[in-house]
Design brief:
binds nicotinamide-adenine-dinucleotide; two-stranded parallel ribbon; 12 helices; alpha/beta; 359 residues; binds 2'deoxy-thymidine-5'-diphospho-alpha-D-glucose
């Protein structure tokens, strides 16, 4: 049966990249994109879609169960791809309640809507529906330097309110499969980077600050390790799971690129230096600041399951991915400028960085 997608959070970083990816690999797929357009979402992220007539935007909150039920019924949706979330760890430390509301209550409301429309009203045969939930490696907690990478069987041990809210939503999704038979899949992915990432996250923030001659704030000693993945590879992995994944299963996704944060920032500086810009050499802007409370030291993903079962592996290496990302930001300064003019953005920068001082 032809898939008709409800993408939640499709105006954000990964969601908008996913919609563009699906339109490239499967132009006939119809997509309804439901997004609240919080500070992190923007319709600018969806400009120049290859097939705009197959994309419909609905401004709405995933916590509004009635709206979700109507959207599923009126549009004959048989596949939900759930990205919508509060996604920034530092914001979850400043104000966790939005994370509980969107990530936990919002996921619950989507699951209830899907249960009602797909399992009670039986809009489609059960074999034709799927609820795919996008999650994070942060649910597994933190690794020591010699610990093996996270597997799907690693016990959950979330350390921030963000990670705990995502872990909670994963458990809810799993329980709707186990208790009610709702067809679900879950993916847990590592740190993404690439075009359209909001400049509060490490890589776009460093590019923006370097371009504007501001300090490049490194938390703590800068030796924390993330498992970086180019966003298009994540989109391909999600699409692969939706097409061929086993119902009820979760899949780890990661990039295997693991230099510490300080090395990532130095690589970005090096790429910018080659571009003959003001503020060269950009490394002189590096500034060590007070660490993030409870900062996870290391993440690494074991991707054997998705590789063995579905044949997926990342296509982009870090050197090329970072280069493409820096070039995208250099080519899209209007997009960046629109964000940094927003009061909300300026306030966030003040809240998060003003009080950190130097380490
Ligand atoms: P993002 O913050 O860029 O985008 C989130 C989107 O969700 C925004 O468009 C926002 O408007 C929307 N949204 C927020 N609250 C909503 C609500 N109540 N109702 C409807 N829409 C709402 O996030 P992202 O980085 O694109 O992450 C997308 C998903 O992927 C999240 O679930 C996140 O936990 C997960 N994830 C992210 C990464 C990463 O590195 N960015 C890695 C692994 C998993
Ligand atoms: O691991 C997957 C997760 O990756 C996703 O689930 C989250 O949605 C996403 O935000 C991301 O979380 P992180 O906390 O790892 O990403 P962030 O870009 O905020 O930080 C990456 C690393 O860089 C982390 O070790 C903290 C550090 N950092 C971050 C910022 C913003 C700094 O040193 N300085 C900074 O200014």
């Amino acid at each position: 049966m032809k898939q008709k997608l409800l993408v939640t959070g499709g105006a954000g970083f990964i969601g908008s990249n996913f919609i563009r990816y699906v339109q490239n690999v499967s132009p006939q797929t119809e997509i309804i994109n439901l997004d609240l357009l919080t500070y992190a979402g923007s319709l600018e992220n969806l400009s120049n879609l290859p097939h705009p007539s197959n994309h419909q935007f609905i401004a709405g909150n995933i916590c509004d169960q009635t709206l979700i039920e109507q959207t599923l019924q009126e549009n004959n949706i048989n596949t939900i791809v759930h990205f919508a979330a509060e996604s920034h760890v530092d914001r979850s430390l400043e104000g966790p309640s939005a994370f509980i509301e969107t990530n936990i209550v919002g996921t619950f409301s989507l699951l209830e809507a899907a249960r009602k429309v797909w399992l009670v009203e039986k809009l489609f045969p059960l074999n034709d529906v799927l609820f795919h939930h996008i999650s994070t490696d942060e649910v597994y907690g933190t690794l020591g330097p010699n610990d093996p990478a996270f597997q799907e069987t690693t016990p959950y041990a979330p350390n921030s309110p963000y990670a705990a809210s995502k872990a909670s939503s994963d458990h809810l999704v799993r329980s709707y499969n186990h208790s009610f038979g709702l067809p679900i899949t879950i993916s847990n992915c590592s740190n993404n980077y690439g075009p359209y990432q909001f400049p509060e996250k490490l890589i776009p923030l460093m590019i923006l600050n370097a371009l504007t001659g501001k300090p490049l704030p490194i938390y703590g000693d800068g030796m924390q390790i993330r498992d970086w993945l180019y966003v298009e590879d994540h989109c391909e992995a999600i699409w692969t799971i939706i097409q061929n994944g086993s119902v009820g299963e979760s899949y780890n996704i990661g990039g295997g690129n693991q230099p510490p944060n300080i090395e990532i920032v130095k690589k970005i500086c090096g790429i910018l230096d080659e571009r003959d810009l003001p503020n060269t050499p950009h490394e002189k802007l590096i500034t060590y600041v007070k660490d993030r409370p409870g900062h996870d030291r290391r993440y690494a993903m074991n991707i054997e399951k998705i590789h063995q079962e579905l044949g997926w592996e990342p296509k982009h290496d870090l050197a090329n991915g970072l280069r493409d990302t820096v070039d995208w930001y250099l080519d899209n300064t209007d997009w960046l400028n629109a964000i940094i003019k927003e009061k909300d953005y300026q306030q966030w920068v003040e809240i998060n960085y003003q009080q950190r001082g130097r380490a």
